[in-house]
Amino acid sequence: MRIKEISFLVLTFIASVFGYYVLGLSNPFKYAAIINLPFLLLSFFNAFFLRNSDEHILPLVALLSNLGCINLYQIDSSYFSAQIRNIYIAALFSMFFTYLFSKLRKPFTYRFVFGVTGLLLFLIPMAFGKEVYGARLWISIDGFRFQPAELGRIFFILFLSGYFGEHQILFAKTSGLSFRKRFVYLIPALIMTLFSLILLVFVRDLGFSLLILSIFLASLFIASSNLSYIFLSLGIFGLGSLISYRLFDHVKNRIDAWLNPWSDPFGKSYQVLQSLFAYAEGNVLGLGLNHGFPELLPAAHTDMTVPIFAESCGILGSITVIAASFLISTILVLMSQKTKNSAEKIFLATSGFTIAFQVFLVVSGTLNLLPLTGLTVPFFSYGGSSLVSSMVLIQLSLLFSTRREKWIVQ
Amino acid sequence: MDSAVKRISTVLFILFAVLIIRLFQVSVLESEKLSNDPHNKREILLTSKVARGKIISRDGEILAYSAKTDRGYKRIYPYGEKFAHLTGYFSQRYGASFSEAYFNDVLSGNPSQRFWSPGKADYKNVRISVDSRLQKKAFSLLKQKGAIAAVEVKTGRILCLVSYPSFDPNKVDESFESWKKKEGKPLLNRVTSGVYPPGSTFKILTLATYLESIGSLEDIYDAPAVFKVGGFRITNYGGKSYGKITVKDAFKYSVNTVFAQMGLSIGPYKFKSSCIKCGFGGKTGVEIPESTGRLPAKLDDPVILSWSAVGQADLNVTPLQMLAFTAAIANKGVWVKPTILMDGNTSTAKRIIDERTAELVTQAMVEVVRSGTGTRARIRGLKVAGKTGTAEVEGGKPHAWFVGFAPAENPEIAAVVILENAGSGGTESAPLFKKLVEYYFFER
Questions:
Q1: Would you list the domain boundaries of chain A?
Q2: All domains of chain B, ordered by start, with CATH?
Q3: Chain segment B3-22, per-residue pLDDT in tens
Q4: Chain B residues in contact with A315 (beta carbon < 8 A)
């Protein structure tokens, strides 16, 4: 039993009951119990298999999921019930996945297997995919839609952590190798990354390609402590963006809307303006749950969850969501500092960074700080695949943080 | 490697700070500006999500209320067209008009200051001065383009206000665009915003000004069929000549050639200041939108002055201005601001004519109804004072006016009737005035 974790989960449960009460559900206790049961199960699982792992992350995940469900209920109750199903699937799948991984004594020896698996997962939608919102990201099995790239991302992080963990001594400036030699060792990771990026750009997933790039940069930076790679890559990224601005209309539209939000208020920039209005209307305390205007926002349940929550719960609501996400990230990064193993350290810090960075990309898109990317807020937005992959990421991180023996790939 | 991890946490902190600062900027600092942006439909949608107060007539009839629907509230107007130019409409798309607009703050409570229990804004009901029975009567009387209105003489409270054609405020969302294009302009409130030449009804003002500063009702004038001023001809209605006639009779038979001469003897400055003092060329101050009408620019031109004294030329007035002025005569020379408010009335009152003059004008107006041009407004058992008007317009039949009040000894109600391009005021409008006032005193 993890007393601390369970008491935090009880607090989340109470907050959840309050939320459903305000929404006017006839039986708030029932719904709160159904939604929080998987987190209790996860807590038991962690007490048993991931002894001594951090006890703050799961309650934060539960908080985000609960707020997310409350938010989805006011957007559209059909998403709400689907999201409850998603939470169960994600909890069960992540437990299963973590259990498998805990049986592997040296998981990072399979780094290339992970890499290829990741690539395949990126590739699947290209072959069998279905177009939704102008991007081909989904595959459908028996009517159950799934976004393989979300899971591909986990394998991609696993691959990079394993690969950079193995070579981290060589990448470091202190290795004494020339920049050229050091660069040679980068080539496999670079190829993998570029290949993934090309695939994702091909299926028009702008946000996800950004995320993959940030994963690559973060893990490379952690392994090398060398900023010159970062600047080099950012240069390449800039060039890539310029080319895609010229080549792809959907990229151009989003960037135009970002630069001149008032130029086409009912066309290109409709979404971002409505999002700004939602934040503004929410002001400090919000209009109240169920009294916002989600119907005015396209893609309300995925990309636009934060402004909708801000509209009903004010800046207090949006800060809660952002702070909870960043807290999860910070805890993961802190956990990485305690880990001795390089690959695990890179995995933890990179996972932590990507979660926060993803939230940053989504929220700054809705605030018109950056162009809209079409990403989701982990745990908070609607989406089965995103929920599964985020949950797996968290559970794997908890697993790696509990290993104490030093382990190096040879 | 650990130093890199530390830098990562610094980056996280910076990203977090950037988000919070921008969030604060959008949600708090720019909140008001963005909320009021014309591209933002939320403020209007917001009002449909909360109940709104009722609009109630002075006798307790509900003229507008909010009915709950599955997505918020819908505004219902049980009497449809009959009270449209008083209640106005309330629409998510087209905003609000008349009472719905003027009382919006009271009716809607304050929906923007709600937190956990929205939908329970502290909205209030509004009682307006209209008498529902009289209003329905007036609506049933008015069957052509025009307007009918009546006020309580002492308080200025509007008892009825009808403008034809009207519109059904229940259908505003579907029909607004077609109303805007429709011939006859149903959205126009002809009582407050219709501008017409007053015709002979304006002789009340000329008479009052004359009696106050020039002469008496018994003064005798030549009343030829044609009176020439600066090469222009002023003629009597029907081309009639009256020989020598007293001012009193000239008023009773509405003799233009006499009033043209009276206007000239009053002079441009006195005439203009009298018009302004009596509320013409300016707003009455009623709570719904209104026009100012127009006073002629060059009154010092004798042609224009003499035409204005008989209510023609460039002179334009609203029926409400005419009504408020008539009510002032009835109220012994004290002008009271017309109002649709029933409670907490803060109507302003001012003396515009001395009491003695007002009594003399009343006498003359009684004569008009007793045996002059306005006999069709006569009511058995009630002394009615009134004045007809037949306002010439270019390219059409004249507008038919009638203004008056009753009982003449101790006036309670004043009313105005105008029918566009209907012909003579004495034959067309006076009977409607009669039916309305009769209903008010004997049938209501």
A1: 3-103+248-402
A2: 45-123 (3.90.1310.10), 134-172+180-443 (3.40.710.10)
A3: 888 888 899 999 999 999 99
A4: 23-24, 27-28
